[in-house]
Structures are given as structure tokens and as C-alpha cells.
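Hi Y.,

Following your request, here is the sequence exactly as I used it, all 143 residues.
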Amino acid sequence: MFGVFNISASGLSAQRLRMDIISDNIANSATIRPATETPFQRRYPVFAVKQESGFARALRRSTGQLGQGVRVVAIAKDDFTPGELVYKPEHPFADAQGYVHMPNVNMMREMVNVMSASRAYEANVTALNASKSMIAKALEIGR
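Below is the corresponding structure, written out as C-alpha cells. Let me know if you'd prefer a different format.
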């Protein structure tokens, strides 16, 4: 009965962490480093299904339930999206050609991710409240 609360709680924690990572990306979107260093790289969380082992896992599989929520497997760096090169030959961190290497943070993408994480967080709160309401109604029936 209380497994529903654990599932919603894991979703809430995962989305809170996702929003923290996005805010860190936004905060570092204008961070410039010397040309000899790697520029800041956008980060994102990698989620996976939280699973049990042993008998509980076999029981859940036989009833069609796959997991017990979500967990964060890793916080990965976005190595695939290139950062922007800005021509500023007067900048102290410019390379030999006069370009400053900017982070690969796209503000539009980050804002979409913030909205998505916010909606997912709200969905988990709604599921938690609905579960709480159903359990309260079930307890009232027993009176």
C-alpha cells in the first residue's frame, strides 16, 4: 500500500535533482575559461527504473509491475553538442585565432527542460495526493 508513496517520492527527488542540474547549466552558460582548458559542458541526469532483487522482484514481474520508482544512475556531460565560438581577440581567454570557446548550454533547451521537469514534478505531487485520498477513503469504508 505504501509503495505508491515511495514511487512518487522517488519521482519527486529525481525531478528536483533534474531542476538543480538545469539551474547549474543556466548559471554557467556564460562561464568562460582559458583556451587551454575545456569549456563548461552541459550536464544532464540519466534515470533508470528502481528495481528490487529476489522474490519481491519476481512477484512484481508476475503481476506486471516493473519497478519501484526511478533512480539517478549518473550525471552525464553533453559531449555531443559543440559550444559556440565567439570572435573576441581582445579577450584574455581567447585562443591564438582570437576566438573564445563558450559553453554548450542552449538557453531554449534548458528552459524547455525546466518546464518538463516542473510538469513531471507536479504530476508526481498529483499522484501522491490521489493515492493519499484513495487510502483515506478506503479507511473510511472500514468504519
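Helices lie at 3-27, 55-62, 107-141.

Thanks again,
Q.
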